[in-house]
């Protein structure tokens, strides 16, 4: 394939049959057009224009090529225009499993109603995404940050709490102190959140020595707790509906986990319209639907 820039210049020159008018259309000099045409001719090994005192005229070979170039370039332009249109109308959001299932999925309809012109694709993964490779526009990421090259906005500061079914609480309660829960079956007792909840006391270490159900996500742990299978250590803000309905009970206040959820996206895309729209919506939604965060690391703007 010859250089596309030279092909585009040749197409304009052939359409106008004039290097000067082609230069005006392309924002180039007449000499620049002539140079690009010469480059193309050298690449092909034959002339595309016959040059004379009265101007230029296509050679037979040049005319055959020119006849096919205009529709071909139109198709290329159409393909990119359609891609730009699709990119502007589709928002790809990545989120961890728990945040997606227990918080975001139930609220995305509000964003869709506010922006009916935009489709939302939710990608659920507990792994950090590569924005360029995975085609992701924005992500909800847990951690402390910052992450090089990413703009971040604080969504929430995470607290953790032990939750269980009302039946399990009634069978083993009342509980005087958090350490009392260690005698119950703990779900995923090797989760470091138990150390934080128990204050790294011996209660957590003793619980690890007993046989237990070990699950690899907070979603499964919370569901197992609802079913009365044990006590789960969770972020209670992700289980507000179950706590409000009585499917789960929380016998003790939450404990600061020194963990955060952020909205993140590439710094260079901060002014993309669809990203701005989602950012404004989720920050407002988060402020209304989540407890106000305690003093914490500042957002990047």
Q: Please tell me the total number of domains.
A: 2
By CATH, the architecture of the largest domain is named 3-Layer(aba) Sandwich
Biggest sheet, spatial arrangement of strands: 4-3-5-8-6-7
Structure classification: alpha/beta
Low-confidence stretches: 291-296
Strand segment tally: 8
Task: List strands and helices in order, with pairings.
Elements: H1 4-16, H2 19-26, H3 30-44, E1 49-52, E2 55-58, H4 60-89, E3 90-95, H5 97-104, H6 108-114, E4 119-124, H7 131-134, E5 138-143, E6 150-163, H8 166-172, H9 192-197, H10 202-208, H11 218-226, E7 232-234, H12 240-245, E8 255-266, H13 273-289
Parallel strand pairs: 3-4, 3-5
Antiparallel strand pairs: 1-2, 5-8, 6-7, 6-8
Structural overview:
This protein is 46% helix and 18% strand. Strands 4-3-5-8-6-7 form a six-stranded mixed beta sheet. It has a two-stranded antiparallel sheet with strand order 1-2. Helix 1 (4-16) crosses helix 2 and helix 1 packs across helix 3. The chain has 13 helices and eight strands. It has two domains: 4-88, Orthogonal Bundle (Arc Repressor Mutant, subunit A), CATH 1.10.10; 96-301, D-Maltodextrin-Binding Protein, domain 2, CATH 3.40.190.290. By secondary structure, it is an alpha/beta fold. The longest helix has 30 residues, at 60-89. It is rod-shaped, with a radius of gyration of 31 Å. Keywords: DNA-binding, Transcription, Transcription regulation. Residues 2-59 form the HTH lysR-type domain. InterPro entries: LysR-type_TF_proteobact-type (IPR058163), LysR_HTH_N (IPR000847), LysR_subst-bd (IPR005119), WH-like_DNA-bd_sf (IPR036388), WH_DNA-bd_sf (IPR036390). Belongs to the LysR transcriptional regulatory family. Pfam families: HTH_1, LysR_substrate.
